[in-house]
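G., the chain you wanted modeled:
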Amino acid sequence: MGGGLSEYPHGFRYKKAKGSNMKPILSLCLILLAALATPSADAARPNIVFILADDLGAGDLGCYNKDSKVPTPNMDKVAAAGIRFNDAHSPSSVCTPTRYGILTGRYCWRSRLKSGVLWGDGTLLISPARLTVGKLLQQAGYATGAVGKWHLGFGAGKKADYSKPLTPGANDVGFDYFFGIPSSLDIPPYLYVRNNLPVKPLSSKVAGSKHRRQKGGGFWRNGRVSEDFKHIEVLPRLAREAVEFIERSNKDSGDKPFFLYFPLTAPHTPWLPTDEFRGKSKAGYYGDFVVQVDHVVGQVVAALEKTGQAKDTLLIVTSDNGSHWPVGDVKKFKHAANGNTRGQKADIWDGGHRVPFLARWPGKIKPGTTSDETICLTDFMATAAAVVGKKVPANAGEDSYNILPALLGETLKGPIREATVHHSFSGMFALRQGSWKLIVGRGSGGFTNPRKIKPKPGEAAGQLYNLAADPREEKNLYLDKPEVVARLKKLLNKYRKDGRSAP
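Predicted structure as tokens:
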């Protein structure tokens, strides 16, 4: 299906104006021309808010997991007021590549970053010449803002220089306004950036934390820090900035809609719930941090409602990858952060990249609906384009499909995506088509041991699973289904060679 590149989204209804005395044939022509020029989803040009949690598992949310040990009332309310996708995936199982994919509609392994993530001194990964979701919406008349964890680099050359203006940066790839931190809460340097300028200089150093997981204090690496940066205060400050952006947009933009990209810093390590949220879950500091994430979602919803913009806003809540929650934590807390999937963050198995995906759009998305459609976060670009009646050019959004028909609950003739490519921390590839998932290699490709297995003579060189019968990816059919392996390998190689997977 070529919905991602279609100029005219599904669902447009033609209506003849009352009292028209024009000749029927001319009237029909004019109506058809108007239909071609004005897609239905563009009628209101809704505000768009995209909340991206950091390392949040689908199994953390009550709307996905009735046995969750973490209360998530605000995200559950978003699901109840809109749609919940049960087969949503991040394009990568770690941070930077997913962010690249969301904003460009392109798999990150097509960029210079072939594995891993950017470090704090990394330079801008997105070319300023490339179309992003932010640029697309700017062209559609939107005010655009990004608040939160950037993790896509600043500047050009070999390393980012935080003593100078950080250009090119977020302001150069589609955002009128930016406030946030360079990367994760455990990766230096530790400072705030506003509109490509450091808010405060890196004036001192902070020692690395010794406590990695459940012993308190969180974990971060030693490095340079600004005087106004306190790790535990970052998430609350980002929440305030996001709310203020919504309030400013309501007061200052007039009829101009806004797009807010809000990538959170949590529940990624260090697990630093503030006192208000300590002990609010039954899943340790991690679970308490998820409760705080849920509170932040509630703050955004409250700001939209307070300013009277909720009814005109498409709100999306998702995560950049699966939870960093190994088997030991599942057993200890009896909490399946990644649901009934194998693996965790960084892994090529579904636990690494199956994510929660909730969307609310009053009057457009039917409340309390669910979808089993397979989607990927790279689909945001083509979908945003369809919402505002824009066309994604041929040199952009190479891996983005339009999922607006699924959001709106339309009857689909077939799967929206032909297939989906997955990518692990180490750069291991997988391809999912229907119920079949091919993994090109053995092991997790990520954090779970064994990370890489060298097959012995006669053993399977890769992994093949039928997810419909084996959602836990435990029965490797690689040697039993050579025809399926060959077909999926051929399609994966085609996607890699062609430079795109979307039609």
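The first strand starts at residue 47 and ends at 53.

Shout if anything looks off.
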